[in-house]
Amino acid sequence: MVSVSLQVLAAPQGNLIVSPNYANFDYNPGGPYPAPVYVSVASTGSPVSFNVSPTVSWISVSASSYVTPATVYVAIAPLPNMAAGTYTGAVRILPTNGGATQQVNVTLRVFVAGNLVASPNYLTFNYQPGGPSPLSQVLSVVNSNNGTVPFGVTASGGTWLGFSQASGNTPTTVLVSVTPAGLASGTYNGTITLTPLSGGASATQVPVTMTIFSTSQLVASPASLYFDYKAGGPTPASQHVSVTSTLEPLNFGVGVQGPGWVTASIASGTTPSGFAVNVLPPSTTAAGNYTATVTITPTSSGGSAVSVPVSVRVTAANYLTAGRSSVSFTYSIGGVNPPPVLVPVTSSSGSMWFEAAAVTTGSVNWLNVTQSNQYTPADVTIGVAPQGLSAGTYSGNVVLSSDAASNGDQYINVTLVVTASKSFTASPFGLVFSYQIGQDPPDPQVLVVNNQSSATPFSLTTATASGGNWLMAVGSGTTPTSAAVAVNASSLGTGTYTGQVVIQSSDTSIPVLQVPVVLNVSPSPVFQPAANLVAFQYQTGGATPASQKVHIGASGGAAVVYYPTILTADGSSWLSATPDVTATPSDLTVSINPKGLTAGLYYGLIGVNDPAGNTPTSFVPVSLQVSNVQILTVASQVLMFNTQTGTGGLAPQQFLVSGTGQTSPFHVTTYGGSWLLATPTDGFTNSTISVSAAPDKLGAGYYLGLVAVEIPGVANSQQFVPVVMVIAPGF
């Protein structure tokens, strides 16, 4: 007997093909970020799954898909401290099942002094012997950083090329002229060079072409046409072509070669005249680059036919979407600023550049907005500065603008209610949940609800913008107290969802408070910050509070590279986080620099971002209380007690109470029920409070409590520590 073994092997995985394999960017600090570079990732043989990884923190990468064929979007986010110079990095594209890694080399040139920019960036002249000399053409010269830069002008290519001035200062114009007399028919090429005479600005060159015809010749302008069409968006506007002749009038015909949806408005004409070129791609047209040629042919005596190339880029529909269509704020006159609202901004088909702007009516600009990134996905932080406004209701808008959006500009309506009544406050001022599909659900989070004027009855409800009833809140009663917020993401698909916890009083004079909630759902590991608030307290003129650490983990214990970004509601730079780049699990060190801040409550957000773009951004809210008088300092924390029915007492937990100045007395109050006890009830700063929970007479359930510490007689000195006791059924 002969044994025969048959081994069946899987089809070999194809090799990655990347085009282009480079991406070059120029950036002027203070100006807009350059547009991203689109890199095509294909493969030989079967489709290949892959990951992308930038080698430096200032490169941002996302992809339309992580299986070939796909498009990788390479963008840059220059670091604030980048000096002028040339920086290099790369994007590595790695097959997940083995094979050769491909690399896209990235070059970033940072021009602190800007660079000279000429418009147009090339010039064309035509001349017919016996006809008039070509008219001079105007070059507009500016510095990309908007400053004044002296520059010199030179010409090369022959004595036929001239200019109006040998030097100038930006912004200005330069006249470029040609002298064709005495030259034979043909094409002549030259260059106008603009060279800065001081500073670090970069020079620029403008190519110049002059054509001398031997017979009357058709001339078409512009020499080429480019259309950009976004599926689902408006039809591109018509573009027009001027047709003249270099001497006597000429009859001509017009023909179009290419897709049938590229057309010309006329079939024939006589110079001087013109026509329109229209593109009307059917809705079924696949994304891609299309070309056509408009040929203008003399039908009477004359020179050669003239071709006008037409390029049409058809891109898939890409819709810009804001996570909320409206936000509202309430402000009590004489109180602290209401907290900001975080709104996710996404696009349906690949990363998109956008700009967020705040618009209000009237003479007071009370609305402000910042954005975490120039490209989607990103988050905009909407804040208000209502000081000085009288009681009433104010309306404004945040406008999200992008030329690449198929659905045009998007609007977030903003309402500010200014009242003489004291309003609700919530801490933290917003909640972020993240869920990896198939993993354990995110833990509930605790809110502290208060009204500084008096004990105020309230109730909680929830609302979501999409995805159904995934948001839940438990809590009611009288302020101050705590409430629990949880999410059920088990039925949701990948995406970012938004909702609100609505805090409302039966007293209609007290404005409703909406606490924003963001839920990230992802098949990839998600970030899991260990804290939902980092709170600092500072007395003006006193010592800067010590830094605090926040542990950043990821679901399933995954190691995910991340970098922090900072957003502050007032736009100032009092908040920072280090290190610049690290990986989970690790600690972020959060620091503040309150010097120069006036008394009040300040809000910030620390974004936790994945450079590879696989893990959705999470956020850690930060609050800073600045006071002109002494206040208490208590570290951000939630005290958790876990037990079962039928068990005895639980070990107490402690927290430290400090102060911003000299030793002062404090008083302790507990809320939530007789099961919660704190000792001592009176003491002096720089001592600990012991908190105990007594489950003996309680059934299984989830119990919420609150420990409040304040300096007797000092307004707004209260600090809160939420307490949660979970009693599981006994066996």
Short synopsis of the structure:
The chain is mainly β. Helix content is 0%, strand content 54%. It is elongated, with a radius of gyration of 33 Å.
Describe this entry's structure for a reader.
It is a single chain. The strands form 14 sheets. The chain has a five-stranded mixed sheet with strand order 10-17-16-12-14, with no helix packed on it. The protein has a five-stranded mixed sheet with strand order 19-26-25-21-23, with no helix packed on it. The protein has no helices and 61 strands. Helix content is 0%, strand content 54%. With 731 residues, the chain is mainly β. β16 and β17 form a beta hairpin.
Q: Uncertain segments of ≥5 residues (pLDDT<50)?
A: 4-11
- The backbone outline, from C-alpha atoms, is elongated
The total strand number stands at 61
CATH topology of the domain at 524-628: Immunoglobulin-like
Q: What value does the Rg take, in angstroms? A: 33 Å
Structural class: mainly beta
What CATH architecture of the domain at 524-628 would you give?
A: Sandwich
Q: Output the CATH homologous superfamily of the domain at 524-628.
A: Immunoglobulins
Number of helical segments with 4 or more residues: 0
Distance between the termini: 65 Å
Largest sheet report: 5 strands, mixed
What is the typical, i.e. mean, pLDDT? 87
